[in-house]
Amino acid sequence: MSSLVTTAAGTLRMRIPYRELPPPTTIIPATATTLPGAVAALKSFLTTPPPASHLPDRTVILTGAGLSVASGLADYRGVNGTYRVNKSYKPIFHHEFLASHETRQRYWARSYIGWRGLGRAGPNPGHHAIRDLGDLLARRYGSGGGDQSNKGITGVITQNVDSFHKMSHPEIRTVELHGSLASVVCTSCQNQFPRDEYQTTLARLNPIWADFLGEALASGALETEDIEERNKRGIKMNPDGDVDLAEAPYTTFRYPACPSCLKEPPRLADGTKTWVEIDKDGAWIPSSTAGVLKPAVIMFGESISAEVKREAEEAIDNAGRMLILGTSLATYSAWRLAQRAKLRGMPIAIVSIGGVRREDMFFEDLDPKMAGPHGVRVEMATEKLLPALVEELKSSNGPGAMVTEVPIGTAFTSGSPNGRPSLIE
């Protein structure tokens, strides 16, 4: 999610790649600039068998923060993304969180305020459309229930930590590449605990902050999606439930210790005994050598587990095409998965507003005559496009209908009597 660079002084520091969006490329096919044209292209993409015989006629989906923008959450690199509207924003890196009590105070104070907004948000029409696509494609292959690997969608791999995919389509396997904010995990014993319970404990340990949260909610500062209005009220919303509070006294914030480590402090790999100490209210204190809780997400500079990598690669290897939604693929952990699909010869469709990291690579060998069936690039909001795609598939004899290869120069029009795209020569 980040990389090491050497400064002029010869020291190493972490760098976040691609803070700005890459320049956009050509829409593919050229007719996909309108909603009917984009729907027709994606329909063709999802219902045309992959070009190589070794590729199964199934789809894997890779998603990013752009999919959740319609749920009221901030993204990083979009039109109103944090890197664009909050130039001073700097996420906390994993090594900083582990090393510094003060850094953890800052993180948990900001996250405590932001959690209410994240907790009240939910899946949007784009998420629900993925559920419906799964149902439609499952019917095409005559599968349902049982082994999820036999369905039309082999899995959804998401970079998002909001758990909206699991909420909206629990029957489709979801690989949370970067974890989930719904839990906290102990950095010592690895036990996990529900974030809602942790939030309650934070409120008990920090009554002044709880009052501030109440005032922020009463003012509507955490409800409005107007960025300027939030800034006027002294609040900047960042991705993943982080809230930037100007001149906030973070050093007064307290957070609890891991209850498991408090009860039975673990030993290190070399057998060294650890200890956990708390104040009279149960807050972790810096003399402790274990029991630090962190969000159950992959922080900047942290490695993804081998198990999660394996699950993501398995979802790709069991599919014959990849649909990419709402991401610039700026993080290498996501880009390498798209690259894996490309190297397998899988057709790729990208629906994302703004440029995508090295996206020309995904379409450089695409036969223009097969644009649509074997490759799509669309700049359109997923919460509008995906439900329209679902309705088209439902109303055109289902996704199992035969698809005709579309010759180059063919255009789409929405002038058909039933309001669906039709072909014109």
TrEMBL record:
Entries under PROSITE patterns matching the protein: SIRTUIN (PS50305)
Residue positions binding Zn(2+): 186, 189, 258, 261
Transcription regulation is among the record's keywords: no
Catalytic residues of the enzyme: 178
Keywords: Metal-binding, NAD, Transferase, Zinc
All residue ranges annotated as the Deacetylase sirtuin-type domain in the record: 32-396
Keyword Cell inner membrane: no
Single Gene Ontology MF annotation: metal ion binding
Name listed for the protein in its UniProt record: DHS-like NAD/FAD-binding domain-containing protein
Pfam families recorded: SIR2
InterPro entries in the record: DHS-like_NAD/FAD-binding_dom (IPR029035), Sirtuin (IPR003000), Sirtuin_cat_small_dom_sf (IPR026591), Ssirtuin_cat_dom (IPR026590)
Family: Belongs to the sirtuin family. Class I subfamily.
Organism: Pseudoneurospora amorphoporcata
